[in-house]
Records
---
Amino acid sequence: MKPEKAKISAITAILLAVWTISMVFVYSEYQRRRGLEGKDIVSSDVKMDSEERRMYNVYRNGSKVGYRIERTIHGGEFYLATEECVLKMNLAGLSREVYLQSIVAIDTTTYNTRQLQFTIRSGSHMSEFTGSVRSDTLYIEVQNYNLAPKRTGYFIVDKSITFPVGIPFFLSRAGADLVSLMVFDPIVFNEYVLHTERKNRKITIIGDKRRTLLEYELSYGDSDARLWLDPAGGLVRADGYMYFGGGIGNFTIEQTESRDVFLMPVDVAFGNDTLKALAIHPDRTIENPRAVEYARFRLEGIRAAYVDVTSSNQKKLSNTPVEIGIYDHPVLEGDRRDFGIQAALSDTSLTGSSDYIQPADARIIRTAREIVAAYSDTLAMAEAISRWVNENMQKNERITLIRSVDILRERKGGFEEYTKLFTALARSVGIHTQINLGLVCREDGVFRYHSWPSVFTGDVWHDVDPYYGQARADATHITLVRGDFERLVELLRLVNNLSIQVIEYR
């Protein structure tokens, strides 16, 4: 067997193994939930009547960025649709592979969705969502990362709600040309009404097979899409597919029979950063944002669960709508303070290395020791490192350097490079350091995605921003995610959905 074919066969075997494990998990989850309203959809003695598997190339704005595997299982009284997708994306200067998996189980007697499961993974970070539908309520359980507690909640929904992967099932069985569905998108964590219209038939060639397809026009919110289904209801092509709520470019998926589907682009062009170019214009301008000591913001298009609750200088004032108060100094109290202490002491990643942060490198250690030689207080050491990074780095948003050792050598880059270098230097001298991912108000009054570090001392986290030369990050820094760059993937669900209202600032 040729090396390339052997590689493809190995990849295929791995994917099949992953899928088998996923199916076992789904079956176990159904068995665990025997107390739910109605009968079980999947039981240990279920008979699978048929299984179909399809492969797709995924394109974004005309360039291949990934692949998708879709499987449907017909088991008599249930229909199971699964989607596994790998996308390669440039997130804040890091070329990352994002893995998405969706599973939906539909009762073929009532046409009601019973179970939902979704996983999003990037590097070592993973977020999981499970849901069950009982009558008009979707009960959910979410875990955003391994150390986070599981959160539960519910939504009042239409009983026919489904995931995006279940849309072809309902369209192919609809008797009318005009159909509206309620869809829950687990990436943006929101439900929306999808309006569809069946259009014309189309003849196309896939591989060496001639296919007759049905075309559908879809609209949801401010976005639209177009799907083509085969006579059996299988998805063949989609323009404007619902990845990330349609907010980060036009995704197209095309069915293929070629094993080359698993071949990924070596890299995604660093000039096409998914997050860096995005801007949010608030309802009013903040004058001199670097001097803001306190600010209160209302965040629309975001759920309260997305706003970090462990940030020492950030208070959640309201859940609906989401309002937060931000200070330029720590204000943590009670349980939140205790949780911050526990997290700092137990999480070894806050002192360790990663693919792009190397605190154990001799050059990093030597530089950091020279910077902090005159200080013994942890906060003073951190402030000295922040000053050094600000004074010795040259701002250049066009430069993208991945590793902190390369940043130390080149001493130029954007906010990601400032944050990576600070983090490596601080950790090299034993300072617990984590990374904030969120938004900051620029001097032009526009909020953009940004990263900055926090250091742990005095039983609280202190935010600093070496990019702006701040020993205390100003109060326009809105933390959405904390931990490390691995969690950047969580920001994708907010793109094009978030708006900011400035309530007050001083």
---
Amino acid sequence: MPYSKEERNELDFYKEFRDELRNLHLRNIKESIPNKFRNENGVLQSFEDILTGNGLEDAQVEADIYRTILSNPNLDALPESEKEEARKYYDSIRESILTKQNDKLKQYVKSEILNKTIDRGFSELIQDVPSTLPESPVDDEGNVIKNLEVKNGDIITARIEINMRVWLIENNKKRKFITKEDFFSSRYRDSQVKVLPIKIINSIDDGKIIVTESIPNVDLRKKLETIDTNNLPPYTTIDDLVNDYDYGGS
């Protein structure tokens, strides 16, 4: 039985795992401060805010987790001679987090020089070829073999078994359910599952995987839709994937 998110957050081993990741993240932030969050090539390094998942530039730097790194909780207690210097130091950290372009960009006009500077010719053109479903197989008399026909709205699988894979045909593509259990918890659970030869299934273009509406977080659902489910370990559950993408927890 998988843990709920609330139960998981109370487990000691999970707290230790989470704190270890957070401390490593905070160490990397602290080590980047002297270089103003730039690498050796001067490129701005983007850090994630542990509390919100947004960029560090939107973080509440006065939060407890960032104290002494991005802010000084005892600033007002410092002597006046030190207070202004400390304030400038932490203000400079905040400014360093933000992307700034100090140099003016070069301007080009349409001329022979521009053509030598920028290759404006197209050597190839990528075309978006629409997906098509395989033609319906026919018997010797030319009649469509109904149990092998593929059409939009079908729920298909290669074989009925404990660890079977299930797809929905939509927009001429096959959209995979993360697991069999996820299919049976979806609104498609009462649909008839059509068993097709794996050769026919492989001939259908892949679409985005299906993440059920049971996950209320829209951003998380979009992330999960990009997963390559063909490489997941056996018996992976939707809870496993949610936990993997729930960095930081709270």
---
Amino acid sequence: MTEHVNLEDNPVAAAWLAHCAELRKEIAKLQAEYDRGTEAIKDAMGDSSEARLGGVPVVTWRTSQPAKYIDTTALRAELPDVAARFTRLKAAARPFKILDTA
């Protein structure tokens, strides 16, 4: 795999990059507006687990079950041999990130 590519050599990809950067800004604005709206709805709901319009449920807001997990840091400290026997290697990822250069 090559270390880098110059997008100036690919005007289509360069144009998409510029468009994606603008879209990211729009998404951030929309997400902020959505978050404000959901907070207003939550405030109106208070402790209720369901909201209705015209008798029809339109929002649910229920507490989930508590999650259980294994504290791998503590397990490695207390039983390193057991932790090592059950540790599996996960395949490497290749995250795609458009960097904010503004």
---
Amino acid sequence: MKRKIIYISLFVFLVSCMTKNNIRNDSYKGVILKVYNDVSNHNIYSFSINTNKYIFIEVAEFFPNSWEYAEIGDSIIKEKGELYITIKKKNGDNKIFYFEE
């Protein structure tokens, strides 16, 4: 039993590290097309983002409360190497949301 708990803990730790590294390596600048609760993905909040090159989905729940602040048409920026996003409103206001596991 103790061995099983160790393996599970190690697995959770490795997945957490991989997610953090993936977030750190992401880089995009785009416009939020949709803010929604993704029922097909365990009811997590997500953004649909248009970067002019492609449209993709970002898990908003990695950045707590960002989905409450964001609106359709807001700009969203994620710089490579950083663990936060910046959401800029049309009126010039902006807010930073930090990654949280």
